[in-house]
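ok so i was messing around last nite and threw this chain in just to see what happens. nothing serious, just curious
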Amino acid sequence: MDEPALKEALPRERVVEADGARIGMLHNAGPRQGREARLAARFPDCAAVVYGHTHRPQVERFQHLWILNPGSPTERRGAAVHSMLVLTVRDGRLTPELVTLA
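result:
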């Protein structure tokens, strides 16, 4: 949905560190089948991966990794609710909270 110039300027994926936790980020995590295993293999040194694209919220542990999709606060696109994610990081420990919106 972004303009081509912005897409060109942004990385396709990124890893950030927050208070001792590495968090992988990407927009499109690919097909539903096998998604969690692919993300765990792609981000082996991360505590979480945050992805988007589907607009369907996901807060799930898979192996060593939190798999997180905030959904969308504006466009449900098939999701049951509008949602967003609050991710608290303290001393390397992650606490995700899915927030549903009216």
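not much to say yet. The mean pLDDT is 94.
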